[in-house]
Amino acid sequence: MLKFTVRRGLLALLILVLAVTLLFAMIHMMPGDPASVILGPKASPELKAELNQRMGLDKPLLVQLGSFYADLARGDLGLDVFSDREVSEIVFEQLPYTIVLVLAAIGGATLLGIPLGCFSAIKRNSLLDRVTAVMSVAFIAIPSFVVALYLLLWLAVKWRWFPAMGAGASGDIVDQARHLVLPAIALGLGWVGYIARLVRATMLEVMEENHIRTARAFGLPERTIIVHYALRIAILPTVTILGLGIGTMLSGALFAEIVFSRPGIGKLLHEAVVTRNYPVVMGSVLVTTTFFVLSTLISDIINAALDPRLRESGKSS
Amino acid sequence: MVTKEGSNLFQITRRGFLQQSTLAGLTIAGSLPSVSWAVRGHQLHIRNYFDISSLDPPFSLSGGDSFIQRAIFQNLLQFKTDGTWHTELDAAEYFEAIDDTHYAFRLKRGQMFSNGFGEMTADDVKFSFERIADPDLNAINAIDMGTLSHVEVHDRYSGTIVLTSAYAAFVPIAVAGYGILSRKALASVGGRFSTQPPCCSGPYLFREWQAKRKTVLERNPLWEGPEAAFAEIHIYAMTDAKAAEMAFEAGQLDCAEISVESVEPFQKNLPPDSFLEIYPSGRNYWLGMNQSNPALEDLRIRQAIQYAIDAESVVEATWFGLAEPSMGPVPRGMLGCRERTLIPAKGDADKARSLLKEAGVDLPLRLRLDVNSDALEMTAVQVIQWSLKKVGIEVDIHTQDSGTFLSLGQEAAGDQWQDIQLFFQSFLGAADPYYSLVWFISEQMGLWNWERFSNEEFDRLNGLAQAASDEAERSRMYQRMQDIMEESGCYRFISNGVMPQIIRNTIKPAFTPDGYGLLRGFRPVTQQS
Prior knowledge:
The complex is a heterodimer of chains A (317) and B (529). With 317 residues, chain A is mostly helical.
């Protein structure tokens, strides 16, 4: 297991370096002059030159990339030329909001989706199964921003059960949780349907396998068979998907952060791209890519822990 | 196949799950105080378009910064809250122009900086003004100090601001635009700050800033003027107008700028206890034409485009009849605004056709039109496209993100300035007409003058108007400058737009004539009545 983890960890590191390098090149090849965007019409050519120099844009792209990695090795993500604040400070100030939102959304979707999928598989072709099927497809099909708008209109504007904007008062966990409910539902609802359909399909497949039949023949209780033998295998694709889902949600969080006026890394990244604030763009990209790679790595490790065959297959690859 | 045992297991769990989740939902909903956000004591909750970039006057970049600066810092003069560009005394008890280059001032006594930095003195005024203009600081806002030479300090409270040459915009742009900071306070933070002011002197104190969330101000107990109307002001950074509208409807905001297209729905179904105000905007929207581009070198072609565009229809479709066609870059209500335009707002399609014929253009003429990816501006260019099509000009619209768009005409950003033909541009002015027109002088060619417009008379008048002290004469010069712009065929002025605001009727708001909030002037209605 340790060897598997180390192998996967090194692969994750390689993916991270490649992804960040590629993103660095893409971002810097975008048209647009950061000095004009950031400083506006008042900027003299001297000021623009100074800003470009401070951002390192006067150097060749490869030199900029080298400087970025050299600074990164020292734990330095650079300085935001807008506010003169450390990029790491800016990024890590926003990151927790997005992580909490994503975890709440994916956590809620998992807690609802897995039982729904299980029930549907066990009660195949029952009314519950059909209702779950219709609802799952509906959840997947409705765009998240539409969900967000209706949640806002009904639960915040009309009934005023939940707040419409912000992330809650600092230090007040209950208030922060209330501010989290609507964006987490908007972001996670589609995933409820997706996970439920996935778990149902894999459960149906697993329940037909020989080892389940054997377990039944041995007279094991159905609860034990489902939880310990069927679900344990049926959940593997879901764990993989959840790893990817967290990454997808990181980018999807942007709409929730805008619609619900929440702080977060998505909004930070969007504003930084629009203003060509390269240091903040790179800092945000690095952190989100790391988070994505880590979540995929963790899902791989969980999969390997649940299914020893994966560890073995890893050796030969 | 499901066994009875399995079925029981999941039936129990399902019920339990459903019961518990329903109970949990009801508990959460029930525990919510069917939120009465409208009742917040002496607090004002207001939207700000931008988050803070820097509150340090030399480095502040956006209207979002000055929105807060005006509440926490004192200027020598401030804008009145009566919706005009007139100024009144703020930190100064006396302010007078001695001549074109000398302004005498005397501060009110006993005006204290927060955080123990003592009383405001003339030396602080000297420090604040000279610091912004200091070439070593290389500050973005140094340009606003114009021809400032230095500030002479006569005694603890009085002094004279000295300019090297006459600069008529000095009072509205510099004196009423920039706050006075304590020399000692700035020294205590190493001479510069961004989002945490070391001292305040206005009716409100800066309490906290939460990045991408909000800024909180609180009443300044040291303030010697009339007591600040609110104990706290919460300013939310919200770039999305729709989110702000929802937050207002949910009762979380007391005042918010809303999108133009939301005005009509709100007029029909106004949230309880609220009202709408439509403020003119100081933004200038126009269609620019790059006269260096071979397709637009012929003046008659540019004039044909001017005449072909039905600005009235553009304004009607874009601003839903809330705005008026523009008189030029200088907006209505400001010195230098014209009473008429040379090209009628409705345009003249017949004249456009005859100009094209005279120029010997083979129709259809195909042109490229670049526009920022802003919903409002994209609507405007579609109507322009329709107007031009009627006279045989086919326009390909190229939508660009703002970062790309803003560099299109900049020579430093590459050669694409040569390829741009038509572009829909908008620019926010300030409290003086100088600020609306200076971007079109010959020196700005390749910077912000993307039309490559160059006119000797225009440049000369720009210099003269900056130095003129007679308002009527200055106004005439700015009017003539706008005529010259129109005569060049490089510009089709469209509108100055509007800034619609939705406001709780427990609040009496105060705005500048271009629709920006003056927090000092906001009052609860009870206090005002």
